[in-house]
Predict the 3D structure of the following.
Amino acid sequence: MMLQLLIGGLATGAIYALAATGFALVWQTSQTINFAQGEFVMLPAFFILAAVSLAGLPFWAAILVGFAVSILVLGVLFKKLIVDPIAPNGVLPLVVATIACALILKESVKEFYSAQAEPFPALVPTEYLRIGGAVISVQDLFVLAVSAAAVIALHVFLAHTRTGRAMQATAQNPAVARILGIDVGRMILYTFVINAGLAVVASILISPIYLAKFSNGEPIGLAAFIAAIVGGFNQVRGAILGGLLLGVVDNFAAVYLSAQYRGAIPLFLLVAVILFRPQGLLGRAEERTV
Amino acid sequence: METEARTGPDRAAILSIEGIVAGYGKMTILNETTFDVARGAITTIIGPNGAGKSTVFNAVFGLLPVRAGRVVFEDRDITNLSPRRLLDLGICLVPQGRNLFPELNVRHNIELGGMALNDTRELSRRLDAAMDRFPVLRRKAEAQASTLSGGEQKLLEIARGLLLEPTLMLIDEPSIGLSPIMVQETFAILKGLRAAGVSILMVEQNARAALELSDYGIVLEQGRTRIADRAGAILGDQQLQQLFLGGALAGDAA
């Protein structure tokens, strides 16, 4: 039973981790706090469903279309049309703009596609394995495997390619990156593109389980935000740890605590971290030089 | 006493600042600043705080818009070109303070100085050469850059700046936060660069030590060039020093 809960929690947590990782990356390189991150995870599933139902594409082709459209809209257009014009005005106006984005995306799906919870095809059959005394869902293992692959691919890119290191450099010290001739604007664009890519993966993984619904963005966005802060906003590793932790804690709370208090647990975790370790579990304490 | 001075024997200038006007927001810091930087020599800009010393670097290196005037490098107008273009042309900037990527290791920090270089094998070769030149960097190649001492970090920044084999290095107050011994070591490295044919334009607060190292000195005050002369002449002229530097050169630690 415990093992089942753990695996199930890790699987959901892995999806939160993907969303939190993109969230943290975007913050680190461009000081953008993306309050539409949840909607970014909600939306690609609808691009894919629309490609199937409206354009009659087979599922695999629809996924490719989903990737392409998401990267264009949630990556490139988001950066050029929303972030670039508003960012010079400061962090807070940009935050408000992303909140507005979230509302627009959510209501658009509700208005123009469906207010219902739509089923989303799973990429693996709904089967169960018996390991020891526990019953493990193949779906959960698939989610863990794909998430792990995405995170490893991201790590390899960031740590072992010149462009990836240039992106890290831009996040750590954009002023110096500029002096070395690094195209800071382009590095930031890549971050948004990567975030969009991670959102698509998360969307494809979560929609078969929880169905695709316009309102899915809220809980996912909140989870991504809390996971990033709990893990350490300045570290991608922190976002991953935060996501996994949140998924596991939430799953155990659902079973061992009343359903009413389940929703409060992530928020308790958030408050506790802010009070006792504001830099997050893996974060470094931020020092300001005076 | 000179204002807008451009004295001294005719010298081949690698960089000419011609009447540039620049500032931050509504403030104008550089008021038609004009001076030449000699080829193959070390030129130091000194002057009181707020005189515009670092602002000159920002203006030359494309980090601050030049509102009027020109910057000429090797007979080519480079006014308001981007840092990337200037790196391609052979100018590098080593800014004031600590300017590293703290979480990357030493090797990757130096390597990022070569972003403008597309030939990865050549980049590898130059990275090796840089670490041979400064053995302490090779020893600490895998260490996180933030663990280096102040002097070692400045060495890293210089090594990084040299990756693209610049002909002109702009270096801003390299002595800040360094022990006197490290300052001498850093200055020795600059002498070595000059011997290798790199022209150096330096801003320094530690005026006496810098002028003792340099061939030429430029005194900036309120965004204007007050003195431009051989460094030795400035060091020897007490009256000049009193007038423009408030006797700042007297009794400076070397």
